[in-house]
Amino acid sequence: MSLLELDDVKVHFPVKKGLFFDRTVGHVYAVDGVSLSIEAGQTYGLVGESGCGKTTLGRAVLRLNDITDGGVVFDGTDLAKLPGEEMRAFRRRLQMVFQDPLGSLNPRQNIESILSEGMAAHGIGKDQAERREKIKDILAKVGLPSNAMSRYPHEFSGGQRQRIGIARALVLEPDVIICDEPVSALDVSVQAQVINLLEELQESLGLTYLVIAHDLAVVRHISDVIGVMYLGGLVEEAPSDALYAGPRHPYTKALMSAVPVPDPEVEDRRERILLHGDLPSPANPPAGCRFHTRCPWVQETKCATERPPLLDTGDGHKVACHFTAEIEAGTVKQTLATGIEAVTGTETVAAEAEEVSEGETAAEPEAAAPEKEEAPGKEEPATVPAQADAAKTADAAKADRAEDSPKA
Ligand SMILES: Nc1ncnc2c1ncn2[C@@H]1O[C@H](COP(=O)(O)OP(=O)(O)OP(=O)(O)O)[C@@H](O)[C@H]1O
Ligand SMILES: [Mg+2]
Predict the structure, then answer these.
(1) Which of 42, 53, 150, 397 could cross-link 192 (Cys pair, CB 3.0–4.6 Å)?
(2) Where is the composition biased (Acidic residues) (predicted)?
(3) Which residues form ligand 1's pocket by a CB distance below 6 Å?
(4) pLDDT tens-digit map of 9-35
C-alpha cells in the first residue's frame, strides 16, 4: 500500500449569485476525479498549466479545501472523512511549502517565533529551550546560519526565505511535504539550489514529496513519477524518464514540444505542436475528453462525447486518451486544430489552420523521434548551452551542482 492514495478526488467550488439569497448558480470543477498514489520516500511531480487545479488538489490533501467527493488515504486512514479533531493529529505529518515565501511568513515574527509556533501547537519539545535546539539543528540542515533565529523574514533573500519555509515544515517532523511551486518565485540559479536541498533532505530524512509545478523542467530530475494535469483531471502519468522519453498524450506532447532542446541541430528540426485557443473555463468544462477542444488529433467519434479514463498503456505509463494506440502507430493523423475556431472562422484563419495541420502531420512522426531520443542527453551538463531558457538553465545548474557537492 502506498503512503498516500488519492481516489477519484473531486473539489467543486460553488459559484454564488445574488445579494441577499446566496443562490448557487454553478460550480467551478477545479479538481474533477483525480486518482494517484505516492510511495513512501518517493517524489510525485504534478505539472499542468495555470488554473488546471494543482494547488486545489494539494490543498485538498491537507483538507485546507473541502473535498467534494473521493478519498485521500494517508497511511491507511481516509482523511477525507475524518472529523476536524482527528484531522489535527494528521496535519503535523503532512506539511506544505508555498510558492511565495515572503507572503507565507509573518513579517512581525522572528524566525524562531515562526518556527516554534507550530512546534508548540503540536506539542513538539517540552519547553522553548528544547525547541530552540531543534530549530538550530533544522536551520543548519536547510543551510541557514543559527543566528537566523533572531532575524525577521524581510532580512533574507528569496532563496533563504524558501529555506525558512522548508524549515518550518521540517521542524514538525512530517512524513509528506507538498511543495506548491517551491521555486517559481526564485532566481534561476537559486531554483537549482532549492531543488537540490529538497533532494538532499529527502534522502537524509526519508521524506515523501508531492511537488507541484507548471514547468516540466523543474520537476524532471526530482520526480520519480510525473502526473500531467489538464482542467481538473490527470491526462498522463508515468515514471519520470519514460514520460520525457516518449510522452503519449497529445497535451503532454504539446507541452514537451515547447521545451527547447540543447542540441542546436535537433533544435533546428524541432517541430512545435501549437495548441490553439485558451484553456476552457473549469466552470464550464467541455464534455467528453476535456482536451478535445484543443487537441490536434481530435477525432469525430468519442472525443467530444466520452471522457477517457486514465489507463495503463504498458510499463506503468498511464494515458487518458481514446486514440493513444492509433496516435502512436500513426494510423490517425492530426486533424484540424479545432481551437482555431475560437479566432472566428474567416477564410484566412481556415487557410492558416490547414497549413499548420499539414506541416505538422508531415513532420511530426519523424521529427518527434530524434527529439525524444535526445531528451535524456540533457543529463550531461556539457550539452546544455548558456542561452537555453530559464528552466533549462536551472536544470543544467542543478546537474552541475549535483556534481560539485552543493552547499548553501
Ligand atoms: N476558493 C476558490 N473558490 C472558487 N474557485 C476557486 C477557488 N480556488 C481555486 N479556484 C478555481 O479553481 C481553479 C483551479 O485553481 P488552482 O489554484 O488550483 O490552479 P493551479 O493549477 O494551482 O494554477 P496556478 O498554476 O496558476 O497556481 C481555478 O479556475 C480557480 O479560479
Ligand atoms: Mg497554483
Answers:
(1) 397
(2) 352-363
(3) 13, 28, 30, 48, 50-56, 214, 282
(4) 999 999 988 877 788 889 999 999 999
